Request: fold
Amino acid sequence: MTRRFLARAARPAGALALAFALAFPAVATPPAAVPAVGNEAYPGTIALHVDATNLAQQVFRMRLSMPVRPGPMTLLYPQWAPGNHGPNIPLTQLAGLKFSAGGKPVEWTRDPVNVYAFHVTVPEGARTLEADYQFLSPLDTTQGRITMTDDILGVQWQSVALYPAGYQARRITVQPTLTLPAGWQFASSLAVDSRTGDEVRFKPHDLDTLVDSPLFAGRHFKRIDLAPGAKQPVMLNIVADNAESLEAKPEQVALHRAMVDQAVKLFGSRHYGQYDFLFAISDEFGTIGREHQQSSENGVKLGYFTDWNRGEAGRELLPHEFVHSWNGKFRRPAGQDVANFNTPLQNELLWVYEGQTQFWGKVLAARSGLVSQAYARDALAADAARYDNTQGRAWRAMQDTVNDPIINGRKPIGWGNWQRSEDYYTEGMLVWLDVDTKIRELSGDKRSLEDFARAFFGVEDGRTETLYYTFEDVVTALDKVQKFDWAPFLRTRLDGHGPGAPLDGLARAGWKLVYDDKPSDAVRASEERARVTDFTYSLGFQVRQDGGVTGVIWDGTGFRAGLAANTTIVAVNNRVYKGDVLKTAVREAKDGKAPIELLVRKGNNLRTISLDYRDGLRYPKLERIPGTKDRLEALFRAVK
Ligand SMILES: [Zn+2]
Reply:
């Protein structure tokens, strides 16, 4: 005890207690806890109005009105949304929060442990609590994904809603209304009650369904029927920066219709009443691919239809998101079965949820003709090479990368090849190719992963309510398709440390990964998209147009010479850096001349490094293994 405290202790006890209470009020009042989720329905309907008319400043204004009882209550702003795979809903964009009851302000305090929770005390006599607040769309991409532009807006209800803690999301009823910019059109899978001018009143929905039913609206809008005559329609709802960009040629529409047809043939079921692709073609609205059961949010750059010959990259987006209606939405991993949007999602089966969706998304793109078989093979070669050269496998198994959306939330990283990222998507796809070809091999090509897709995701045609599954369920379903010891087969690939990616599937499909000195169209397209020259499989890095080094392979040639992603190549063998200059140097070094000399800059310092590399330019390709069955051709062929 200090002397000062002893002096105070000599005072009468009552005065001491008062002195403590005044000095440390926060200690004296423990924070209100966020109520645990119960089973009752929230009494009454919450009215949520969204005013989406402030295009100039990209501000969504909300008014929420909820029936309440007097006393303490807690409201939550969603933190986790299905499909985000992490606690990534941007709380910073919620602003201006004010509560009131009967026209009088009600103060809020933020929970000190759960910062997404707001505590209020509803005054005596109050029956309704009002909340006014805004959602501020990022103004530029450094702040996040732009959700409102002069021509397009997207409403994700989880970003504009507050909801009472203590209740399951599916037991909270919300009646949404929306004010649109004058004359705009919109699409959403939400059922509309009425539309008067630019005011839209939706039917009441439970909060789960509401969050699963986002909305795109636009000044320029076009709707294309992708399943003419179908009992469960599939619509492509397009918004764009300008009217020209909406125009799809009949042959482009035919390819998208074929994709929908191939998906329905694959799964043999539908788990939507009507499916709506929300599709933004824009250089300003944020790009996105987000799955929902009866819709999906898709955002691509300008030119999707109008610059069709630019290349096939990006055409796997719509099939990928469509597959999610079955895989990820209708059927979901058990760890994704949560009560509300502030309960952590568990990601351990994302290699099924995303990995097999990646597999079928690519297969459907090829089967429908959205991409050619040659493109699909080149893209597969690029994926196989990427994961075969992932050095981070030595310390981090692919299984662990399912945690990456929680750990990193897709922020840029410096050493991707070593840190690893969300590899469960595309390496997951390679594992499923492995499974597919194993089933084909064991069954004498009578069965394939398609039988699993139908038996696992295609069950209970018409059912929209979610069916959850475990790892054991996956293994059991595979075993029913083809008897085999699937659990260790999968676990070896998920938990393994290589070396190299699981490429047995390629070999069983009759192809092998090789490298030659000519980049494929897929490699060239990805160089163009990322604005880099790709030396990944030769020098072990890529270079941006300004000479900036990126994508350094851990322990590759460039790495061993001390290169990192904050280094810029100034000159190559005393010539100013250009992609072609370095390519020429790599070619010439092959003929046994001196090593490649680079003048590099890091910060204000220049230094010279030398790359002792003799193997020439190397780009991934697939090559047929002579005398084997071409199972890739069978996989990519359209189903009659
Ligand atoms: Zn996905």
